[in-house]
Amino acid sequence: MPRVVVVGAGIAGLAAARRLRSTCPVDVEILVLEASSRVGGKLRREQVAGCWVDVGAEAMLARRPEGLAAAREVGLAEDLIYPLTTAALVRSRGANHRLPGRTLIGVPADLAAAAESGILSQASLELLRDEPSRSPIRPLAQDISVGELVEQRFGAEVVDRLVDPLLGGVYAGRARELSLDATIPVLAARLRELGGSLLEAAATLTRPAATPSPVFASVRGGLSRLVEELAADVEVRTSTTVRELHRRATGFRLVYGSADSPAAMDADAVLLATPAAKTAALLREIAPAAAAELAAIDTASMAIITMAFRASDLGDGLPDGSGLLIPAVEPLEVKAMTFTSQKWPGIGQDEGLVLMRASLGRAGEAMALQREDAELVSLVRAELATVAGVAAEPVDSHVQRWGGALPQYRVGHLDRVRRIRAAVGDTSGLAVCGASYDGVGIPACIASAHTAADLIAGGLAGSAQWKYGDR
Length: 471
Ligand SMILES: Cc1cc2nc3c(=O)[nH]c(=O)nc-3n(C[C@H](O)[C@H](O)[C@H](O)COP(=O)(O)OP(=O)(O)OC[C@H]3O[C@@H](n4cnc5c(N)ncnc54)[C@H](O)[C@@H]3O)c2cc1C
Known about the structure:
The chain is α+β, with helices and mostly antiparallel strands. The chain has 3 domains: 3-41 and 224-297 and 410-470, FAD/NAD(P)-binding domain (3-Layer(bba) Sandwich); 45-85 and 299-406, Alpha-Beta Complex (Polyamine Oxidase, Chain A, domain 2), CATH 3.90.660.20; 99-205, protoporphyrinogen ix oxidase, domain 3 (Orthogonal Bundle), CATH 1.10.3110.10. It contains 16 helices and 22 strands. It has helices spanning 11-23, 65-73, 111-117, 122-130, 146-154, 156-171, 180-183, 185-193, 198-205, 225-232, 276-283, 288-295, 340-343, 373-388, 413-425, 442-461; strands spanning 3-7, 29-33, 45-48, 51-54, 60-61, 80-81, 88-92, 95-98, 103-104, 107-108, 216-219, 235-237, 242-247, 252-256, 263-267, 269-272, 299-310, 323-325, 336-338, 353-360, 396-407, 430-432. Strands 8-7-18-19-20-17-21 form a 7-stranded mixed β-sheet, with helices on both faces. Helix 1 packs parallel to helix 10 (225-232), helix 8 (185-193) packs across helix 9 and helix 11 packs antiparallel against helix 12 (288-295). The chain is globular and about 70 Å long. The two termini are 25 Å apart. 51% of the residues are buried. Flavin-adenine dinucleotide binds at residues 7-13, 33-36, 41-43, 56-60, 241-242, 273-275, 278, 302, 304, 402, 405-406, 434-435, 440-442, 445. Flavin-adenine dinucleotide (FAD) is lined by residues 7-13, 33-36, 41-43, 56-60, 241-242, 273-275, 278, 302, 304, 402, 405-406, 434-435, 440-442, 445.
């Protein structure tokens, strides 16, 4: 029986393994090798004051099908939960404001909503109002950073106070460095084709749906249950670091285990579902061009600090809403707070607790994380006091560090991904997937996993030569 080894048991590796198992037309042995002692990668849950909470990814986009479908397939349909509120706040000039109702990941789509939020100055609102009558954007010939485009049309303040906290929040990056093509592809496609007004393009792309449906979903007991359930169905070896990957006359040899006493294993096909730097290291010998491109993908490091308070200690409680975004131009270090017990059902409410989490760390700001856990907790407490007037002592807290966690999709990212896939595709039986390619969100990671798994399955089922380009 041919053997497929999947390297990495994050959502991508596990989704790929499951896809192979359920759709591969020939019988295969599927083995997932995972370096850490647990599965899930950036999906991980912990107990804080006795309540299960996600300390990595906590929500999946429900407007794409892949995340919800994966949850249903592993028997979590009844446990899907949706936010109690999606009303978010943005900190601006020392006050909390409602996020404007209609934006495209922070790019304003509605002048009245932007004005009502109170976030923007009169001068910015005038730029927004006049933008559709200014000379139109010429159809974009090439990729541009989201920040550069928005600044040209709406001015710097809109980038700093809306786009950076929203778009930058997803990537832990900066809007002026993130690729339009890779991070807001619908807007890029429209502007490439038609050019025109940014405000009008954003308005068209954010038209309210005829039947509103939840934008995000999670799972009761923690979104991380999704990876736990996916892993239950496939053979995963944890604490098994793959160190080298070599080509053999047919198939591959993987060297794994500790540096002192490595072991080797052969495989007919290999699927790498590891972060870019690790994938680069593994491909150095067999796909050097892909390795060089992967090594050039920067990442941002983050920390998630979760705290639990007794509801009775909080007086007026936390500000209304699902959370607070804090632009980098504000004099605070935390970049976002999620008011977990206000956002999701069943987290602390029955226990008389209020849970919240704060995230710290943007691309290029790893220094902010060079502190002891206790210092990070104190920092979050101090900033929570500033933004929400909360002086209470938490009953429990948890600090989760995520080093090099989020790949930065810089201008030209999609071309880079095409070059990586072309180079990987030159080696039959090899595929890559995960957050470094087509999107960092959970549905996008699952989609890239399915594409990679289908390639492997197609190759095992038939032709000797098969690659990304064949699809
Ligand atoms: C703090 C944080 C919050 C986030 N919030 C959200 C959110 O709310 N919603 C959302 O959709 N997305 C969110 N994301 C993004 C999303 O979680 C990730 O992009 C996604 O989970 C990445 O999945 P992956 O399988 O590609 O990689 P990973 O989760 O990084 O998994 C890769 C796995 O490979 C293993 N590995 C690495 N090297 C080796 C090796 N040599 N041998 C064997 N194994 C190896 C690693 O240990 C890891 O388990 C968040 C990310 C972070 C960091």
